[in-house]
Design a protein that fits this description.
Layout: H1 5-31, H2 35-54, H3 61-93, H4 100-123, H5 126-133
Helix pairs in contact: 1-2, 1-4, 2-3, 3-4
Length: 139
């Protein structure tokens, strides 16, 4: 079944908005990778991924697959950071300090890896490539 032209325009507009939001959150978290910023990146990734799934009929399958693969790697990395944040909060609520230094060290390592990944993505101008691949540039 082919969607009406208005629906396609709506889908492209929504995906453009979701991609813009994802890019904003990634830049924000790259500057200050705090717990809230990392959480916001994760939410943006999930929303953009859901948009790709919901509107898949409007995009080239191979392009969506490539983008989803990259998003999956970013989500996995941010999960590592988020897991440490949750563990640190939990330990703080119990007033436990024994495991804190190790968790902080791990979080910093994942945070560094996250910042490097964002820099690589930006150097490759991922948002422009994704907009082009998904034909979002005219919306």
């Amino acid at each position: 079944m082919t969607a009406a032209p208005g629906i396609r325009d709506y889908a492209l507009d929504q995906m453009n908005h979701l991609l813009t939001r994802l890019v904003f959150q990634m830049h924000r978290a790259a500057k200050v990778p705090g717990p809230e910023e990392i959480h916001d990146v994760r939410v943006s990734i999930r929303r953009f991924s859901q948009g790709l799934l919901l509107f898949e009929e409007f995009f080239p399958r191979w392009e969506v697959k490539k983008i989803k693969r990259r998003l999956k790697r970013m989500l996995k990395l941010t999960s590592q950071i988020r897991d440490r944040d949750i563990a640190l909060d939990f330990l703080a609520s119990l007033k436990q300090t024994r495991h804190r230094p190790g968790l902080v060290k791990q979080r910093l390592a994942f945070e560094k890896e996250f910042s490097q990944m964002v820099r690589r993505w930006n150097a490759r101008d991922f948002s422009a490539k994704w907009r082009n691949g998904l034909s979002l540039q005219n919306t």
